Amino acid sequence: SWTRAAVVGISNAAITNPQFTDPNEVLINTTTTPKTVVYAYTTTANGCSYSQNVSVVVNPSPALVVTGGKIICKGSSATVSASGSGSTFVWSTGASTANITISPSVTTTYTVTATNTYGCTKADTVSILVSPCTGIDLNGSFAKGVHVFPNPASTSATIVFHSEAEGTYTLKLCDVSGRTISELTRKAVPGENTGQLNLENLAKGWYMIVLQKGEDTYRGSILKE
């Protein structure tokens, strides 16, 4: 049988009741230095007992902080950085430096793995969101297109479309699951019409825009930064 005492810096609780199967646990070192955990074994046979301690050294995982996640315009570059107690850093791009500069053409998530002097590793990710950084201009049932700007936007955005005749339009802002976050209905006039999207209290990310006028429907997207 075996037991194990608690160790300061090891998050696992003590095992004081004798166990009769082999240890099968993950020991977690919450410090920055190695910790020694002792398993106390006792063997009993023919009325005789024999005790022996088995020591296990639990090395710490590297601390890892990844920064630089942001929204960039298509064609631009960004620098992401890894720091902490790792002695080496390896990115999913193959780079092995703490800082890398990337120019993704689409939204991309990068993974970095840190390794410390004890050979322990820890991984984390950082995402770069890529936006066209232009107003959305799609020709569809709205004959002269629909424009949304700025895009990305932080607090508000303007949507502009051309109407051939009077009528009523509805402007919806939805999350990526399709849930309506806001909705407004306004009178459309012949010529240029303008609507406002309030993004101030929304979390960062992509949102869908749905503009309806009669039988015409426009669907686009906007990035809140």
Q: Features of this protein?
A:
single chain, 225 residues, mainly beta, four-stranded antiparallel sheet, 0% helix, elongated
Folded structure, characterized:
- This protein is mostly beta strands.
- It contains no helices and 18 strands.
- The strands form five sheets. Strands 2-1-3-4 form a four-stranded antiparallel β-sheet, with no helix packed on it. It has a four-stranded mixed β-sheet with strand order 6-11-10-8, with no helix packed on it. It has a four-stranded antiparallel β-sheet with strand order 15-14-17-18, with no helix packed on it.
- 19% of the residues are buried.
- The model is unreliable at 134-141 (pLDDT under 50).
Task: Give a topology summary.
Blueprint: E1 2-4, E2 15-19, E3 35-45, E4 48-58, E5 64-67, E6 70-73, E7 78-84, E8 88-91, E9 99-102, E10 108-115, E11 121-131, E12 146-149, E13 156-163, E14 167-174, E15 180-188, E16 191-198, E17 205-213, E18 216-224
Parallel strand pairs: 6-11
Antiparallel strand pairs: 1-2, 1-3, 3-4, 5-7, 7-9, 8-10, 10-11, 12-13, 13-16, 14-15, 14-17, 17-18
Give a quick summary of the entry.
The protein has strands at residues 2-4, 15-19, 35-45, 48-58, 64-67, 70-73, 78-84, 88-91, 99-102, 108-115, 121-131, 146-149, 156-163, 167-174, 180-188, 191-198, 205-213, 216-224. By secondary structure, the chain is mainly β.
